[in-house]
Structure formats: structure tokens, C-alpha cells
Amino acid sequence: MNMEPVGTPVPVAEPQGKDVGSSPERIMSEAGNTTDKKPHSSDPLKETPVQDKEEDKPAGLEPPVDWFEPLEEDDNDEVESLAGESEMSVSGAGSEKNHLKVHKFQQPRRKRSSPEEGWDVWPILGDGWKRKEVIRRSGSSIGQKDVYYISPKGDRVRSRVELTSVLEGVDLSTFEYKSGRFIPGGVPPTRVRIRAKRKIPESSSSESSFVERGEGTDTPDSLHRLTPNLGPKTVPSQPTVWLAQSTVVIPTQQYEYPPAEKEIKLPLPSSSRALPLPSINGDISSEENTLVCSRCGISFTGTWYDKQRKRPFCPTCWAASKTKVHPMVRFRKWIPCGQCVGCLNTVNCGHCANCKNGLQSPESRKRLCRGRKCICPIRKSPGSGGFVPQQPYNEIPDTFEDCLSFQSEVTDSQHLSLKSSDTENFSINVDIDDDDDMSTDDDDDWHKKRKRRSCGDCKACQCRIDCGTCDFCADKPKFGGSNKKRQKCRLRQCQRQAMRHLLPYQRGQKDPGSENLWLPGRPRTYNTYSRKSGLKKGKGPSGLDFTDNEDEDSNLQAMNWNPEMTSADSLSYELNVRNHQSSMQSNHLDFELNGLPDRVPHTSSDNNNSELDQLSRLDAEKLHADRHGPKCGEEDDDEDDDYYEEEEEEEEDELPIITQIFSMADSQVSSGVDSENQLMKLLQALRSTVMPILWYAILVNGPQLQIIQCSKQSNLTDAIVLIDPGFCYQVTVQKQPLLPTHPLYDKYPAHLTSATEVVNLLLGLEEYVVCQGLPPKDPLLRTGPIILERASTCDFLVKKKVSICSNCRALQGL
DNA sequence: GCCAACGTTGGC
DNA sequence: GCCAACGTTGGC
């Protein structure tokens, strides 16, 4: 956060280098920039780029506003607009609920800033570069400053790493990202984490924190500390607060709470200023250090934050936040999952209605902080009295391999409530007012909202590995993407609460949420505070109530993946326009479906029955994403949990329910996770093996291992070897499976259980070429793609010496 | 009404 | 500091 005093507003887009001797031209010369343009060389230099925020104001500029300068009530609107540009938001941006004209840390949602606002021309990096500083206006990291750059080409840069990649070849070793300047002699270390490594006594979290105040005067933190006497002398422990909401009192003293977090007090970005004496609910002695406790709402001076300089906490609330929730506490009526962010959250937000109510009257508080409510509560089954057991940590998948099977466990999670509680745990029943608990209000805390799309419990949420192939993964910089979508891997989207359009694609859908197919996940929600709010609020595409309030009560939304869709999806790709099926080929398919021998996996045949998408094979990422349909369709819908019945009933009226169950898929996946693991092992073996040229192995849902010939120059273009969990395999060419009587199958084992066997098969395939089929009868009359016809019993693969298989040749002779 | 784009915030 | 990704919104 730039704490420099704001000087005279400078003209719009007049960035400058503050550093002496660091003229943009010279620096760019150092940076290797060859441009000679000096579009702003004549402009006066700014003291700090932050000042340029004023540039976005209309003419007749208001006087510069200090970042921490309290604003008058009349400034609210202005602040709102400025909030989009960060720093101003730190000021008391029109807080109706907090009457203090000081920093408001829990602002209502602000207006979105214009993408063009606040960008400072930044010739230091070269002509056309722009820079923008944004100070986080809310959230637990409020006050933190982010610096962005945008290149002349429009590349958005959000970190030094990205900047380095954009300015490839430019020496940025002396470039200080935050300030945006080149520092002669190099960039000094930006962070000192001495204190972070200091071991803090565990005796009393609050006390330990205040002990620090008297030491380490040579550390940055020493400049930002509160008066010791203001420490919480009688800080209520968190368990006490928590249990105040329960109907049962347990001997919490016997529970050994985790040690206090080591670091809680971090310096303000501008650590060069002396801090004023603290003042709680008193006069503000220094604007820049007067904070509003995000928990209790009192003002205080100092720089106390919760861990990692998140929300500001007054000493009392900070100390109170250091304790942990007793792990044995369980809800009644609505049972917390014990795994989600709400359950795992141990810190009261302090600003929600429940917290405020409790702070006003701690003894009477009976409601849990909204931020700590389970965001995916499971309703207690009638009379069961069962509680959600803690899921063993060893069940949390750490690998993508595990993730591949997550869908199959969805139903398990739905049945959590029916399971007996963990006998090793003692659960305390906590009565919660259902209605209140499920409701929302203006004080709904921000961090909960941000986390509402993850239940934290399903396998998708627990998966830590990106598939690397879906479109969202492909968008990620780490996978070479442009970081435009910025969405979580589709396979990691929460099965309960993710938006539908974020879930894995379904059968040819570009976006699952765009169709009224019955899909898992939440309908898309629409915000209500912006344009067209009246239209967006209330009804989604299917007519259901999709208000944002569903955040609260739609946690129990039906969760069912349709097996048919997913199984069909697994191979609903790959066919190019030039590979249209002829009617004869359809006949061929019928033959296959009806007469497939056991050795040939069935799935491919079925998949061939689905409507094939005309997807471009050139778009490999997209193709792969489509292949990665969820596995969850393998679950038996009959096992739907009672908890979801109501939601299902609601949707039944609106959405078509696909009742057909794909039985073959069920039988196929009966092999379970072990089979998947085996396939994964084979995949890994293949990827560590030298494969015949341009054959590539992937794992798709099913599960199914596919080895694809990627080269269009190959004689085996569009040939795929499909291996099912039982290691049975099938060869398809242009989506058509070889007849089980094809001689190829006689030359190789019925099961491909090793990379060697697979490679041998591929080498054997290389001896074949694709049957050319029958040319069109009237080729001269055709202007579009040439579509070959084949006999229904076409061999598809023929020896290189033979261009047309005997069956097609026989058909040709008819 | 949909969604690509991206501002923004959380987490490590 | 950096990355992940949530949630919003302007364009279509």
C-alpha cells in the first residue's frame, strides 16, 4: 500500500519514474527495450503511480484523497466508484452499518471497476506499458496491494513471473515489481520473515501476541504494535463462545487445543512510519493505522490482523480467534459435513448478524457465525440421530488417479448421514435454528460467499490434481494457457455446489448449463446488484429459483450424474466431417452391437451409437476435455439419498429426467477403483515408454485407456486402441470398431496388460492402412467433403498392399 | 440469456 | 510473491 502523501494530481496517464536517474528511456535501454518513442517524456513525473488513480475522475477533479482518509457521507457514491480502483475502498466507503468514518473492512459489494480505469502509462517498461495498483478492498487480505501491468499487446501481467515471460529477454533482475521501477544495484529483499520463524509460546495465544510487542524492535513489526495494556486480559476462549450456541455443555477444558498460530501481526506495507498509540473506540490518532475490527466492529489503532495479515482484528478478537473449535461439536437438525470450509473455519467473522448479535450480548448469543456454518449441511435423517463422521484423511485423494473415481463416490457422500458416527469421536449435538441457519442477509460474510462453491467434502473438492486436459486446465498458465478462464479444473469442480456450466462437459454440450439436461451441480446464479438485476434474479434457465439465496439452502441440491450421458460422452468425439458414417456403416454398427464377442469391450460399441460430435481433431484440448466426462454416472441412481429428494422433486417438474440406466457401463465399472488404478499404471508405463511415432495414450472416463494416432499423415489416422479396465482392447478406425473377426485380433493377446504388449500391437497396426472404401459414385457432382462408403463388414484395416478390403471390393462389384 | 473475460480475493 | 480460482459483467 502506498502510503506516500498524495501530491498534486497529475494529468491522466502521466506515469513517471520517481527514482532519480531512472528515466524511462534510460531504464528501458537497460531493459533491452529498443523503442525510441518517448510519448510521455515531457510529462512531469509522478511521485507515485498511485496518484494516478485520480486520473479516472472526471474533469474538475476532486482533491486527492488519501487512502486512509475518512470520507464524508456524501462521498459514498464517489467512493463506490473509486472502490473499483482499490485504494479508495480502504477508506470508509459508505458504510451504512458501520458508522465510523474510518476504514471499513467489510464493505457491501462495490461497483465493478472499469477495466480501463486506473491504468498508469508505464514507460519504464517500455512504450505502451501500463501499470495499475489495486488494493484489496475486502476479504481477509484486505489492504493488500496488487500490482498489475498490461503490455502494449494487451498481455495482462499479475506477477513478476508473468512479467518475465512477457518481457522475454529483458533483464528484470533489477526491476522491482511492486514499485514498477528498476532499482540500481538490484532489488533488495522484499520480505523479512524473521518473525515468522520465531517460536511463540503456546501458553496463551493472546498473551503471546502481546509479548511480541515488547520485542523485536528491529523488525518491521515492531513499528506496528499496540499498546500492551490494551491486550485482552479476559479474552473468552473460542470454545466457550462456540458452546454458547449449543444445548449441551461439554468439558472443553479437557480438549487440548492446537497451539496458537505463530504469526498474527504483520506490518503495514508502509512500515516506515511510526505508529500512533492505539486507541480503541477512541479518537483516531492516525488515519493510516486506525482499523475497524472485522469481528466486533470497534475501531482501534494498530496493525493487528489475523493470520497472514488478513482481516484486522482488535486485540480481543484476535486472541479469541486463536482458539480452535472443539472437534466434537456437531449440529443437530442440519448436520455439518465436518469437512467444508465452513466447518473448518475457526474464526468468527465478527461482522455477520450472528456475530454482531453475540458481541452485543455475548451471553445470549445462540447462533453460530455465518462464516462458520457448514456450507453443505446434511440433514439429519428422521430419527436416525446419526451424525456425519469425520472422513479419514487417508480417504482424501491426492492424485488425479483418485479423482478419476470421485464421481462414483458421490452417492457415498450423500449417504453420510445414514452412517453411524465415528465411534472414536464424541459428538455434541448443537441445536441450530434451521430457518435462520439457512437464511441469508446483508451481513452474509464474504469469505463464506467465496467458498460457497466448494463443499469440501466430495471427491472433486478433495482432489488436488488438475486433469491438465480440460479446457479450464488448458487455460491455466501452468499448462500453457492464457489464463483467461481462470476456472478450476472441471473434474475438480464441486459436485454439489459448483455451477453447472463449470462441471465436465456432457454429451456434446459445450456448456452443460446451457441445456435443460438434468445435470449435477448448481444452476447458474445471477447477481442482483448490477444491470438487469430484475431479469437475472429469481429464475434461471430452467425456471427454478436461482436467487443468490440458494447459496444457503441449495446446498442440498440434487446430485445425480446421469450414467447414460456420461458413458455416451466418453467417446462422443473424434469424428471429422470427412468421416461421416454411411448408411452401410450404420449397419455395420448394428452388427457390432448385436454380435460383439466378449473379448471386445462393449463401451465403444455403445459409444458409437451416440450422436457423434463433429469436433475438430485439431483442437486437441477441447477434444480431450469432452472426453473427460464425469465418472459419476456409474453410480446407481437408485441410491439417492433422502436428503435430496425434495430438491429432486422440485426439479422433476422442470427438467427432463433421464431414467434410462446404462447397464453396460455399470458392469464395466464394477471393476472399481482398482481397475482404474491399473489403467493408470498402464498409462504411466506407456508414457514412459518409447511409443511408435505419434501414438499417444490418454485416460478417459469410463475409465478407458485410449492410444490414439495423432498424425494425420499416418496411414492410421483416426485409429484408436481402446483398453478397458479389464485390459480387453478394441481397435477403432475413424470411430468404427474393427470386426472382432479381424485378423489383427488373432495376432495379439486378448488383453493388453503391459506397455510392451501395447507397443507390439501398435507396431502391428502400422502394417495396416485404412481401407479406402468405395469412392462416391458421382464424384464430379460433389462439392463438399468426399464421403467414402464402405461395406457394413468393412475390415477398415487392410494390409498396405491392399487399398480396399475384400468386403468393400465385393460391394463395389455388385 | 449466455458466457468469455477478468477483476478480485484466498491460500500457500 | 505468486498462483488458484471465485464471482461479476459487458458483449453478444
Automatic annotation (TrEMBL):
It is found in: Nucleus. Residues 115-182 form the MBD domain. Residues 602-613 have a biased composition (Polar residues). Keywords: DNA-binding, Metal-binding, Nucleus, Transcription, Transcription regulation, Zinc, Zinc-finger. The keyword Cytoplasm does not apply. GO terms for biological process: DNA methylation-dependent constitutive heterochromatin formation; negative regulation of transcription by RNA polymerase II. GO terms for cellular component: nucleoplasm. Residues 69-80, 634-654 have a biased composition (Acidic residues). The keyword Metal-binding applies. Residues 329-375, 448-495 form the CXXC-type domain. Residues 35-59, 210-224, 614-633 have a biased composition (Basic and acidic residues). Residues 1-118, 197-231, 528-554, 591-654 are annotated as: Disordered. One of its GO terms (molecular function) is zinc ion binding. SUPFAM superfamilies: DNA-binding domain. Residues 100-112 have a biased composition (Basic residues). Pfam families: MBD, zf-CXXC. PANTHER family: METHYL-CPG BINDING PROTEIN, MBD, METHYL-CPG-BINDING DOMAIN PROTEIN 1. This is Methyl-CpG-binding domain protein 1b isoform X1. It comes from Gymnodraco acuticeps. The lineage of its organism: Eukaryota, Metazoa, Chordata, Craniata, Vertebrata.
